[in-house]
Each structure stands twice: as structure tokens, then as C-alpha cells.
């Protein structure tokens, strides 16, 4: 299911298990992906994370099917409430970006929408540089 609200990026509701590694915490947390976009993800951890994690670096890994394809998103925690953790994507390798692009395209069915979102993302990167 597609959620756009007033965002520049479509959030794809996608229920899947992920691994979440938050910098300075000793454990890798298992979590469930609730939604994902070109700009980030929302996950629900299996157990509450009581530590202060706002703005900490993190790494989320989503394995797609049995063929070994993955989406690995390096980012930071932008919000945290109990078991819910919102991540902002800061870096993805080419394979992860390709897999995320396929996932978004399969769920939106719109090459035009995806093209618009990719253009917006590239323009925002240019403005920061």
C-alpha cells in the first residue's frame, strides 16, 4: 500500500523482518519494517530500546526473498518512541538502491512517480553540495 501524505517520497508499506544496528548499542536488533521510501524507513523493534538513540548512526538490512538480494540503508535515527524507530537514509550502495527502486516500482506501478521522486532526491543532493 502506498502512503504519500504531504511528503516528497512515497512510503511503501512493506512488512518484513530487518536487522537494525544502532551505533553505540551492543546488540543488533531484530525488527519489522513497517514502511520504506527513498528517504528512509519506519521499523518496529521486537523489544523496546530504552537508550537515547535520537540522531545516532544506524544500519538497516532488509533481505529480499531467498536469492540473497538485500537493501542496506545507512542512516540516522530521526525519531524514536518505544519500539518504533524512524530512520533517515543517508547512504545506499548501488545494488541496494536498485533493489529499493524495484520494490517501489512494484508497489506503486508508476514509473513516472518513481522518476519524479528520484529527480527530487538528486536535486536535493545537488543543493547540499
UniProtKB/TrEMBL annotation:
Any one Gene Ontology molecular-function term assigned to this protein's record: cyclic-di-GMP binding
Coiled coil: none
Keywords of this entry: c-di-GMP, Nucleotide-binding
PilZ domain boundaries: 6-104
Domain of life of the source: Bacteria
Alphabetical list of Pfam families matching this protein: PilZ (PF07238)
Description of how the protein assembles with itself and partners: Monomer in both c-di-GMP-bound and free forms.
Function: Binds the second messenger bis-(3'-5') cyclic dimeric guanosine monophosphate (c-di-GMP). Can bind two c-di-GMP molecules per monomer. May play a role in bacterial second-messenger regulated processes. Binding to c-di-GMP induces a conformational change of the C- and N-termini resulting in the exposure of a highly negative surface on one side of the protein to a possible effector protein.
Protein name: Cyclic diguanosine monophosphate-binding protein
Organism: Methylotenera mobilis (strain JLW8 / ATCC BAA-1282 / DSM 17540)
Amino acid at each position: 500500500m502506498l502512503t504519500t501524505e504531504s511528503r516528497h517520497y512515497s512510503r511503501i508499506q512493506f512488512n518484513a523482518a530487518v536487522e537494525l544496528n544502532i551505533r553505540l548499542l551492543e546488540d543488533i536488533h531484530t525488527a519489522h519494517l513497517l514502511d520504506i521510501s527513498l528517504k528512509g524507513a519506519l521499523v518496529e523493534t521486537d523489544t523496546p530500546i530504552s537508550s537515547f538513540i535520537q540522531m545516532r548512526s544506524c544500519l538497516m538490512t532488509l533481505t529480499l526473498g531467498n536469492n540473497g538480494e538485500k537493501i542496506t540503508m545507512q542512516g540516522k535515527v530521526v525519531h524514536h518512541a518505544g519500539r518504533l524507530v524512524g530512520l533517515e537514509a543517508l547512504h545506499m550502495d548501488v545494488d541496494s538502491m536498485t533493489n529499493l527502486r524495484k520494490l517501489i516500482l512494484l508497489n506503486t506501478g508508476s514509473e513516472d512517480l518513481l522518476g519524479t521522486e528520484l529527480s527530487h532526491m538528486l536535486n536535493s543532493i545537488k543543493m547540499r553540495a
